């Protein structure tokens, strides 16, 4: 999204943003505040989050029947009520788990993350080093902001 809006004048960008749904326009405005080439500028905020108390069956039902805005679902991010990242669940783990198990029972409580100001080349190094398909972007307090996928990094080099 940033490359498109980055090519526009402020007046042209405002023209398009004024015609978008408020939530989507607010997301784009927030992303435009991050330095170009940073994880914040590359990330998507459309992330699938679950709570630790959600059951596997409930999450699978939600994924199958809801209209998720997430363009890519490689991992499910377990967050608390303050949107603090507490763990990560792979789709493979979700599918292979007993439907009655809870997310906090199958999540990995140790995860790799980056901050919004992490540079693009460092994000790519982290994704390569750990073999990730996506990396969460968090604040210094652990609040989940979004994710950067491997293709976001590669296509923006």
UniProtKB/TrEMBL annotation:
Swiss-Prot/TrEMBL keywords: CBS domain
The record's section on PROSITE patterns has: CBS (PS51371)
Q: Which GO terms describe its cellular component?
A: membrane
Superkingdom of origin: Bacteria
Please tell me whether the keyword Ligase is annotated for this protein.
no
Which GO terms of the molecular function aspect are on file? Answer: magnesium ion transmembrane transporter activity
Q: CBS domain: which residues?
A: 43-105, 107-157
InterPro entries named in the record: CBS_dom, CBS_dom_sf, MgtE_transporter
Annotated protein name in UniProt: CBS domain-containing protein
Organism (species): Paenibacillus elgii
Classification from the root reads: Bacteria, Bacillati, Bacillota, Bacilli, Bacillales
